């Protein structure tokens, strides 16, 4: 392709937030009339790349060249003046203003020193009909319309501002299938008109339908840019998770027994789900098994677990726990039913930094007993000591503040908290993330040991070797749907990746 086709070049872009390199030396090239999709797991840096382009964040290093001219972008206004406009993941409109006002806010047509409402409404109507095939009453407040329509309005605004570049950051995450189709139709129409579109998604099923080019990011780094029709799905997944599929294929298969299918269910779900978070799913968790959830970051693994524990209230179907059915659950109920949950982000949801190790360990047990049945200090100390010993938590004393411990030891304290409640089912969401390799190993060994003693475990991990090592059965999720199940011998890395990728593997 000719170089004159290049509309936008981003070179060596770096952006650091406190404690995280969101982008390191990323290159990105956009050509005329292409739909260029940014891919990567949650946290890969997709939104940050968009936000430095649209002036939400300033780049620390790098160059941005627009149609041959080096430009500086230090505010959203500046980005808009260059014709760069975006529709964010979170629709950024004012729900109580009219459709027309939303489209022209900040750039209202004026007449004799005041806003020309008539022109604004006519223009808005024309814009929506001509460019988005959408006929709605533009004088009505935006909140009269569905999220899909609101998004179309946001796109109309962006298209009207943009001069040839449109950015869509996960516009499909809250749309249903039909609405996605409609959006894709519009995107293709824009492409035909010569517009260049940067599209962000982590939904595998949607990528190939519209993309010409794919740029994959991982942990803030560029993995590469590819022609969509030359990158098989399995390779795309490999690149997103940073694993070479062909290498994995060569690895020896593990020998695994299929766990007894006759085992009783501890949990069974029927079309259990939550609108906008996780599609209705039917799964079983059998007593005494280690069930794994595998999938890309953002595939819906945590969302599924959160619905089961009731952190997020389910909106459809039912869940049966130990023979009792509920249409939704909440954490207190889940705990009463014998479920424990170690959340993914222990900093936010798990540890209480100001409390001691003992207090952190006792927390869930106290909650289970109810706050009026205070656990005597002596008992608290006994329990704490038991788990400090069992999990080999490295601390001079149980009266240390938990914030003084290393990540791995903090994770063990959270684990201890739930073990102390002696749960029948323990849900572990990424229990080994961010801890050193030795501690990782101890935790996976512990999981195996607990299961041997009869505990049921739901294990979520992005580390495929851990999933293979621990699980009796693996449920695979993609794009917020449960899409497959592997058991026994089928549980090996290559198979899991193939299932995650779906579609053709060649
Ligand atoms: N405003 C911010 N402050 C601190 N960290 C941030 C901020 N925005 C993003 N990050 C971090 O930068 C990384 C990349 O995030 P993001 O670009 O949102 O990823 P993606 O859109 O691919 O899911 C993540 O680790 C995220 O936590
Ligand atoms: Mg994002």
TrEMBL record:
Its EC number is 3.6.3.17. It comes from the Bacteria. GO terms for molecular function: ATP binding; ATP hydrolysis activity. It holds the Pfam family ABC_tran. It is found in: Cell membrane. Residues 8-244, 261-504 form the ABC transporter domain. The keyword Zinc does not apply. This is Monosaccharide ABC transporter ATP-binding protein, CUT2 family. It comes from Clostridium saccharoperbutylacetonicum N1-4(HMT).
